[in-house]
Amino acid sequence: MALIVQKYGGTSVSSTERIKNVAQRVARFKAQGHQVVVVVSAMSGETNRLIGLAKGIQSNPDPRELDVLVATGEQVTIALLSMALMEMGLKAKSYTGAQVRILTDDAHTKARILSIDEENLRRDLNAGHVVVVAGFQGVDEKGNITTLGRGGSDTTGVALAAALKADECQIYTDVDGVYTTDPRIVPEARKLKTITFEEMLEMASLGSKVLQIRSVEFAGKYKVKLRVLSSFEEEGEGTLITFEEEAMEQPIISGIAFNRDEAKVTVLGVPDRPGIAYAILGPVADANIDVDMIIQNVGADSTTDFTFTVHRNEFTKALGILKTVQGSIGAREVKGDDKIAKVSLVGVGMRSHSGIASSMFKTLAAEGINIQMISTSEIKISVVIDEKYLELAVRVLHKAFDLEQAA
Amino acid sequence: MALIVQKYGGTSVSSTERIKNVAQRVARFKAQGHQVVVVVSAMSGETNRLIGLAKGIQSNPDPRELDVLVATGEQVTIALLSMALMEMGLKAKSYTGAQVRILTDDAHTKARILSIDEENLRRDLNAGHVVVVAGFQGVDEKGNITTLGRGGSDTTGVALAAALKADECQIYTDVDGVYTTDPRIVPEARKLKTITFEEMLEMASLGSKVLQIRSVEFAGKYKVKLRVLSSFEEEGEGTLITFEEEAMEQPIISGIAFNRDEAKVTVLGVPDRPGIAYAILGPVADANIDVDMIIQNVGADSTTDFTFTVHRNEFTKALGILKTVQGSIGAREVKGDDKIAKVSLVGVGMRSHSGIASSMFKTLAAEGINIQMISTSEIKISVVIDEKYLELAVRVLHKAFDLEQAA
């Protein structure tokens, strides 16, 4: 007998029919003798409907009241799922975030979980109940309703699994696991049976939108065994996210992540002196623009070239800021490009293997793909290329590193 | 400066536009220097939509989970109204029933209020906030969400007014006050400036569906000054519900109530012996059928005739029960009629005036309307007549008692 936390997203509970399907899946786990805690999101579309109502009244809705409003979405789902479980003859009980007492800070619309009272849930589980908890929401110390921000239901699931010391946290979604890359670009992309937390973090932040990144961090921190599964398939073991020490033998590369959300800004011919990076990036940070990759190269004539990437939505703003400070920092030229893409190889195995970077560069060169920027970490190599080569680059790298073969 | 509790029903908050209108009305009271607590219902149609979802899953939804579900309706409205008030530059704060801590018993879907913590509300009011409270809902001692049953938002308004010792509780609805009778039947029906609690209770229970009867009882018990107003008119003072001792001079008759929801069952020729009423009504009560009027007449031949009325929906069931017990109670015949209507004169003034009943009977006789049953209380005379004479009876009585004239 195990204690399992299952989280179902909005598309898995988008109608009464689908809610009944979720109840059937839960019933199968109960029939196997497991204790089950279910975390649910709002029915898909509901959160957007509620935000639409709010915006019909306040263009910039008050955060406290917005949380009161959108928290109703999950509250509807927990009641309906509990009814569906009872209709199948199971004992079930719903909990809002406040009823569990998922205590958060008071940062409305993006609150962080501080603690969870698991006592009542455990009592209900021991009495044979399926416990159904509203994802995405909590309560601050003063009793105000808070929400964890979009995707926060994953975090609720992982946090509950940590608090209850659950044997596994299963995240049911509309994909059946984590793939070596996006199957829409590489049809041979293969579902991974396991992936490490570090790799998952790199994959998630780079655009493989399977799990909310905060929930992965949370799971890593509290050693929660996390599994991604499809809520629309009866069979399948999904992808288990492992701790590195558990992994028997890691493949060198686990997957290829990519995104085309970025743009780059280059400052050419800046005097090479201390403080120049701050002089360039300070004004950008002051404008609340997040910077991703940063590269600085010293040139021959005691000047330096400086390049960074920002989200494409903020490209014009960032470029404008740099043009206004160009004179004061003594730069020769400021220019930008928003037709770029980032491609990354991710794998903990590359720590103990040399030559991965050079293989990657050789593969791209053989296709005539020019590399504009390079950035590396212990388990990731990222390159920025012309956007038009993105699909080609992902395909040839997937093949070059034999990712279609099971490791 | 006064402290006013205002309650707005579902049609008053049925769209974001109407919610903005409510905010404007609240703002006018604030501008006059008053402190305002607003109690709101769910947007009209929302409660039925949620119940529809529940019934798509459980034909007889679990009461605890049904309360979790439908309580979201008012939660949506409090958030939206608070936003609308802020958009007008006012300070506002929403409270669910649980956040106020409107403590109720644990009778899900028909809970009763036990106590209200008014401390936080008072602190917010003193800090200049408009306090917006979800009607219809509370929380039991264990933290379960409860609801007060349909129309319970009126009760929430009155209970808050009592707890806060408010100067007035204003119930905004889609009618502009209490009338002498239904204006759809008697166009000359007149809006009453005042009506006593006792009269209001008789009017409400008889079918003048302006206020939920529980809220009127509550207001009477806690001496809350209650006023019924239209939420769709700018002007107008509505109808004030007074305590009898405040009323200067009461008219003899305040209004005429009626309903056609009832049916009558008659048991003829029952042996006239002790225990016979119980033998007849016991099986009906056991079947959870509510009985309204009961009349027993002793006949000449040591038998008695027994007639009672039930809701028309339960007529067939009640008749069936009586036919099965007919033999054991020794009745000659059991028959029924579901084409009846009840018409009632209501007025505290009739206590000190004789001859009201005979005037009523004379008026009906002059129109050839036969009276089938009569029942009287201190401030009410009810007759049961053939349903087809209902409108005629109400019109001639309204005229005979000069109700179109202001008292």
Oligomeric status of the shown chains?
homodimer
Supply the number of helical segments of chain A.
12
Most extensive interface, residues per chain? A-B, 36 and 36 residues
Low-pLDDT residue spans of chain A: none
In order across it, which strands form the biggest sheet of chain A?
3-6-2-1-9-11-12-10
Q: In CATH terms, what is the architecture of the domain at 3-174 in chain A?
A: 3-Layer(aba) Sandwich
> Which class of secondary structure composition applies to the elements of chain A?
alpha/beta
Main beta-sheet strand count, sense and barrel state of chain A: 8 strands, mixed
Mean pLDDT value of chain A: 90
DSSP strand content of chain A: 25-35%
CATH class of the domain at 3-174 in chain A, please?
Answer: Alpha Beta
Describe the structure.
The structure is a homodimer of 407-residue chains. By secondary structure, chain A is of the alpha/beta class. Chain A has a domain at 3-174: Acetylglutamate kinase-like (Carbamate kinase, 3-Layer(aba) Sandwich). In chain A, 35% of the residues lie in helices and 27% in strands. Chain A is built from twelve helices and 20 strands. Chain A has helices at residues 16-31, 46-55, 63-87, 97-100, 119-126, 152-163, 197-205, 213-221, 276-286, 315-329, 356-366, 390-400, and strands at 3-8, 35-40, 92-95, 102-104, 113-116, 130-134, 137-139, 145-147, 168-173, 194-196, 226-230, 239-242, 255-259, 262-271, 291-298, 303-311, 333-337, 340-346, 371-377, 380-386. Chain A has an eight-stranded mixed β-sheet with strand order 3-6-2-1-9-11-12-10, with helices on both faces. Chain A has a four-stranded antiparallel β-sheet with strand order 13-18-20-19, sandwiched between helices. In chain A, strands 15-16-14-17 form a four-stranded antiparallel β-sheet, with helices on one face. In chain A, β7 and β8 form a beta hairpin. In chain A, α2 packs antiparallel against α3 and α7 (197-205) runs antiparallel to α8 (213-221). Chain A is globular. The model of chain A has no long low-confidence stretch (mean pLDDT 90). Chain A binds chain B through residues 16, 19-20, 50, 53-54, 56-58, 61-62, 64-66, 68-69, 71-72, 75-76, 78-80, 82-84, 86-87, 93-94, 96, 98-99, 143-145, and chain B through 16, 19-20, 50, 53-54, 56-58, 61-62, 64-66, 68-69, 71-72, 75-76, 78-80, 82-84, 86-87, 93-94, 96, 98-99, 143-145.
